Amino acid sequence: MSVSSTGVTAPLLRAHVAAGLLKVAARVFAEQGERASMTAIAEAAGVGRATLYRYFPTKDALVAALHDTAFTHLTRQVAAAGLDAVPVPEALARLTRIVIATASEYRALALFDKTAAQAAEADHAMHEPFRQLFHRAAAEGVLRADIPVDGVYLALLEGMIGQVISGRIGVEQASAAATAVFLDGARTPAAARQR
């Protein structure tokens, strides 16, 4: 195993550099759109083009890695949120913040076509935690059963993500607003009285 002068193994250092390059790429794509070049990304990251190409041999490879990073990040955040350990309203607030923050950070991914597998992964990563939470909420009698709460909430969430991406509102404000607006209109009368 090779160890650098700082005591960090080469694979860890490589992973750290790759993560930094992806973070910069997400920002550059968000600012410049699909037309962002590998040269622009390398310059923004403060590395030479050869270094960027060593990590990501093509723009498609970089976008694919960015996609994988975004959904790995989202999945880990959801898993760490402890959604099953808190009441539905708190779980919804936590999940909302995670999704809005992740969608805002990786918003550039919306610019690129997705493969069928990537689209399925996106659907699963973004919607499955909400489906599970809404199923739990229905079982506990917390949310109304006479309206499609999952569709209503996902539409509200997409609208709030759009507001964050456009710079009209911040992640925290958007998350709090989405959660409050939804819960005030989607609670069962009995749950509203228990507040």
Structure description:
This protein has 195 residues and is mainly alpha-helical. The mean pLDDT is 86. It is elongated. The longest helix is centred in the middle third of the chain and has 25 residues, at 116-140. Helices cover 73% and strands 0% of the residues. It has helices at 10-32, 38-45, 49-55, 59-80, 88-105, 116-140, 149-165, 171-186, 189-194. It folds into two domains: 1-57, Orthogonal Bundle (Arc Repressor Mutant, subunit A); 61-194, Tetracycline Repressor, domain 2, CATH 1.10.357.10.
Per-chain topology:
Elements: H1 10-32, H2 38-45, H3 49-55, H4 59-80, H5 88-105, H6 116-140, H7 149-165, H8 171-186, H9 189-194
Helix pairs in contact: 1-2, 1-4, 2-3, 4-5, 4-6, 5-6, 5-7, 5-8, 7-8
In brief:
The protein is 73% helix and 0% strand. By secondary structure, the chain is an all-alpha fold. The protein starts with 9 loop residues before the first helix and ends with a helix.
Number of strands: 0
Strand content: under 5%
* Helix share, percent: over 70%
Would you identify the CATH H-level superfamily of the largest domain? Tetracycline Repressor, domain 2
Q: What string, H for helix and E for strand, traces the elements in order? A: HHHHHHHHH
Mean pLDDT metric: 86
User: Main β-sheet: number of strands, strand sense, barrel status?
Assistant: none
Supply the CATH class of the largest domain.
Mainly Alpha
Low-confidence stretches: none
User: How many structural domains does the protein architecture include?
Assistant: 2
Report the radius of gyration as a whole number of Å: 20 Å
Using the coordinates shown, work out and report the CATH topology of the largest domain: Tetracycline Repressor, domain 2
Quickly give the CATH architecture of the largest domain: Orthogonal Bundle
Based on secondary structure, the structural category is: mainly alpha
The gross shape turns out to be elongated
Number of helices: 9
Termini Cα gap: 57 Å
